[in-house]
Specification:
Layout lengths: L2 H34 L6 H9 L1 E6 L7 E2 L8 E2 L1 H13 L2 E6 L7 H4 L5 E7 L2 H4 L2 E16 L3 H4 L13 E5 L5 H7 L4 E5 L7 H5 L5 E5 H10 L3 E4 L10 E11 L3 H27 L2
Parallel strand pairs: 1-4, 1-5, 7-8
Antiparallel strand pairs: 2-3, 5-11, 6-9, 6-10, 6-11
Helix pairs in contact: 3-10
Length: 284
């Protein structure tokens, strides 16, 4: 084979490889676009488009869904609202919020009063029996005490609080009560009836060394009350996996195509949702 013909063959091969690579690179984009296209054969999507509105159950639950009570701007904000707006945009309909309560936010789905409940819900086995979830966040616990308490300041992990010389306070009847009793079987436990997010007064008065608090209100508490210290360490305890629970929106059962599409859109928007949650927390 001559040098000229060899050059032609190599050139053609390189061009073919380039075209092939470009073609392969384009494939995920096409598939991705298809995943965001609402499925036309979903009965729920057909009903939403016919009504011209996506009805969503709303109940404020910062930082995921925040009601604007100051006037001006949008009535709602937070990652749950951001995601819902994208759903409505892709469906070509308006977004219609419907006020719900703690008692009705799940039942309204079965009664078809809303298409989805975007008031943030913790995923629990009981709820999973009656609704399907699209999860975009999670909640978990921090354990905090006074920074001037050597037992707290010298701790390296939450495990260090499971000792006989540690007193752990908790709110009786709260969601953390069972977790505390399981997580700290060797510690002294002190149940108290008062407190909103956590029995802070028990810590400040030295009646207890540590107490659990949800990672979200911990941010606000740490700004308000100086001299506290929380574990797990890192990212101001926001990466804690203690008593972790997924958070998401819910739809009625037996809507596989609707659920699949909602999940695909959520996956596409996850970086935005995470950033919006962080911004919302910082405002608390």
């Amino acid at each position: 084979m001559t040098r000229f013909s060899l050059r032609k063959v190599l050139g053609a091969t390189q061009r073919y490889s380039l075209v092939a690579c470009l073609g392969l690179a384009a494939l995920p984009a096409v598939g991705h676009a298809d995943a965001l296209t609402p499925p036309a054969d979903s009965p729920r999507i057909q009903a939403i488009k016919k009504a011209g509105a996506l009805k969503v159950g709303v109940l404020s639950n910062p930082p995921w869904l925040v009601e604007n009570t100051q006037g001006g701007g949008e009535a709602w904000s937070g990652p749950a609202w951001l995601l819902s707006k994208e759903y409505a945009k892709l469906l070509g309909v308006k977004l219609q919020p419907v006020l719900v309560s703690h008692e009705t936010k799940v039942p309204v789905l079965a009664s078809n009063q809303v298409d989805m409940t975007i008031s943030p819900l913790s995923v629990t086995p009981a709820r999973q029996k009656v609704v399907d979830f699209v999860t975009y966040s999670k909640t978990s616990l921090c354990v905090f005490g006074r920074a001037d308490n050597p037992k707290v300041k010298n701790a390296k992990s939450v495990d260090d609080f499971n000792k006989p010389d540690i007193t752990v306070a908790y709110l009786t009847g709260g969601g953390e009560e069972a977790w505390v009793k399981t997580r700290f079987p060797k510690a002294k436990l002190r149940g108290v009836a008062s407190g909103v997010a956590a029995p802070v007064e028990e810590i400040m008065a030295h009646r207890a060394d540590v107490t659990p608090i949800n990672r979200i209100p911990w941010i606000a508490l740490n700004k308000k009350v100086k001299g506290l210290y929380a574990l797990p360490l890192g990212n101001n305890c926001q990466d804690s996996t203690e008593m972790a629970s997924d958070i998401g929106l819910a739809i009625d059962k037996n809507q596989p195509k609707f659920l699949s599409w909602l999940t695909a859109v959520k996956d596409h928007m996850q970086p935005q949702l995470t950033a919006d949650e962080k911004a919302s927390i910082e405002k608390m």
